[in-house]
């Protein structure tokens, strides 16, 4: 546990995946907390890849004493977001995927990262 009495970011993120997305094919912890710019009020940004999802969605919640914002995608929906972010000159999702810490990978993360690096 950290100074604030809550779990370290990676431990909280791992527990989140284990509890809410145990059957996903991949998950990444990204954002300021892994880049070293996190503050006491930072959230955990988690990208989830799950082939069972019909469409992508984004949700915010509090779990494991952390505010968490997660971005859930199936194994193709992220591609539209990569394109959209590129067109807006704000590659948020490609950056999260490229720079994040892998929490879970059943062989999907590296191909998706390869795509993200194009943006």
Automatic annotation (TrEMBL):
InterPro entries in the record: NT_sf (IPR043519)
Gene3D superfamilies per record: Beta Polymerase, domain 2
Name used for this protein in its record: Nucleotidyltransferase
């Amino acid at each position: 546990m950290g100074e604030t009495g809550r779990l370290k970011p990676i431990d909280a993120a791992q527990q989140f995946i284990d509890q809410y997305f145990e059957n996903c094919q991949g998950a990444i912890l990204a954002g300021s907390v892994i880049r070293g710019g996190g503050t006491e009020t930072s959230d955990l940004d988690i990208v989830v890849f799950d082939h069972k999802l019909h469409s992508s969605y984004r949700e915010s919640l509090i779990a494991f004493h952390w505010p968490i914002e997660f971005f859930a995608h199936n194994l193709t929906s992220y591609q539209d977001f990569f394109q959209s972010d590129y067109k807006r000159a704000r590659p948020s999702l490609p950056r999260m995927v490229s720079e994040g810490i892998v929490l879970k990978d059943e062989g999907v993360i590296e191909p998706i990262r390869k795509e993200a690096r194009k943006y």
